[in-house]
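Exercise 7.
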Amino acid sequence: MPTHFIKLKPSAVDEYKAIHAAVWPGVLAALERAHIVDYSINHYPPLQLLIATMKYVGDDYDADMKKVAEDPETQKWWAATDGMQESFATGATGSGKDIPWWTEVEEVFRFEGTS
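Solution. The predicted structure, written as tokens, is:
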């Protein structure tokens, strides 16, 4: 389950939450086509962090993420949301580019249980 983080601009908190309260159906459809069955974004205000986790159930993560990046509706979504964020990645210029906009973090522990 990949986890990523990025900084949310303090001036954009309300706008970011509002747009995510009604995510565009085409964006959600692109995620589903990419075999993402569980996706959440959490906000940690003291550090202005957005932390995203997703459950990927496909066979080729890189290819599926490329399809998401090529989706026109997702590109419009990123154009609306990228300006609300500040990337931690040196040289990043936006979502779907060669340098990842969101920073992926290493998982050091997971417990899934048996239930």
